[in-house]
Model the fold of this input.
Amino acid sequence: MNLKLTSNKNNIIDLEVIISGSKSESNRLLILQQLFPNINIQNLSDSDDTHHLQEALSSDNKIADIGHAGTAMRFLTAFFATQEGTTKILQGSERMHNRPIEILVNALRDLGADIEYLEKDGYPPIKITGKKIVKDTVAIDGNVSSQYISALMLIAPGLKNGLAIELKGIVTSVPYIEMTLSLLHQIGVSATFIKNSIKIEALENVSAQNIVVESDWSSASYFYSLIALSKVGATIELTAYKKDSLQGDNCLATIYKHFGVTTTFKENTIVLSKEEKHSTAILTEDLKNAPDIAQTIAVTCFGLGVACDLTGLHTLKIKETDRLEALKEELTKLGATISVTNESLHLKATTNINENIKIATYNDHRMAMAFAPLALKTTIIIADAEVVSKSYRNFWEDMQQVGLETIKVK
Done:
């Protein structure tokens, strides 16, 4: 399905939008719930990733197909490796079979796990034969996807002797590691993260408890972009968010001040308002702790005619697509002057935006959603628009609510 996006108002409608729970928090809690069944989870993410994870955990089928769900692939690899007597084959989309998992598999093998590559060494699909893990120390590179590290952290309290994880080199995506740590603390696990060392104690059971998942800050980023691209005076309220969020993407509140957007925290909501014109100064940001919002920020800058230098983006090369190259390709079609390296993006300021450009999405939900707010500035077409279901099933309905017109086209 291709969608043509337009807006006659050049401004969004003032209303409240309910956004489902954080995919990152939901998927971590679902693994912990398998270890400690008396955890009850509310406001789970409605994303494809979370649905794939739930299905794999609840099904007795030997084969689990997790599609494009990278988080599910990493977390399930670690989980099933510890399930003694269980054999599971994890497979996914063609892109998933080209996303590396060797670093995590090597760490699990060092602990004694039995994992076999079924096609290409270092990549899914994989066959996992669950074993009792007794070794309690492991080392892993700190500058890789934090999901590898979180996968190890999540299984740690269920291991007989707990687990000490040594992170080698520079550690990136620290907020996601701290999110996992905070959730472990929340259910009663004794765990520490000091410098490059993580220590997690074993735990037999936890007290019965109800955990409400905070709404997803990555999903909020598209509304930040809409407000930034709107006229002064535009506002929108989003539920349900916390000022003391566990999610690293809450840095949006600070970054979008550059674009004249103010964030007001209420009891369970945030109000975004365009209170002044955006700054024309170049935006320089190191996004190593929040790489998932890079696409949204780059598109916002382009739409406002603001130059940007974004760094810390090395993990974007191994996402659903090579997001840096995809951004370069699609923004160039729109009229941008942009360059990328293996870990950075550099955009020059321009006031020219081409019209009726079809944006390729590369099986990447964030490509579709990041470009949607540009409809406030020009008519665009989003190819394969249904890809948004990976993380935000109701995205297009919510875009219509706030005033964007969506028309199905060939």
